[in-house]
Amino acid sequence: MSNDKDEVVTTLKQMICDRTELGLTIGQIGDEQPLFDGPPGAVGLDSIEALELVVGIEEVYGLTIKADEVNVVEKFHSVSSLADFVIDMKAAS
User: Fold this and answer.
1) Listed residue (22, 10, 9) closest to 50, CA to CA
2) How many domains does the chain have?
3) Which of 4-13, 31-40, 84-93 is predicted with the least confidence, judged by mean pLDDT?
């Protein structure tokens, strides 16, 4: 994993801790752990918390995420997949 991705992963984990009511710490969120309720061991984000995460990403990285143009299930599957998405969007902007 590159340093850039490491930084994005850490930022996203901190964002999840700060912007949700889950009471998690960075150390409790795995890079490949599913973010949404469903699979066993998922972080447990709901749609409102996902929106908070989108707003945070837009603020921190200066990006615009349009839900109708993004495969949310794929891109927001885990912190790692979300970090890849953010890096790709930053590179394209």
Assistant:
1) 22
2) 1
3) 31-40
Give the range of the structural domain holding residue 77, as residue numbers without chain letter.
3-92
pLDDT, tens digit (0-9, with 9 covering 90-100), for 67-86: 788 887 789 999 999 999 99
What's 42's domain CATH number?
1.10.1200.10
Running DSSP on this structure, what letter comes out for residue 45? B
CA 41 – CA 20 distance, rounded (Å): 17
Q: Using alpha carbons only, what angle is made at residue 89 by residues 59 and 65, rounded to the nearest 5 degrees?
A: 50
Contacts of 63 (CB under 8 A, 6+ apart): 57, 86, 89, 90, 93
Q: Count other Cβ atoms within 10 Å, centred on residue 20.
A: 18
Flag whether pLDDT at 1 surpasses 60.
no
Cα separation, 47 vs 37, in Å, equals: 10
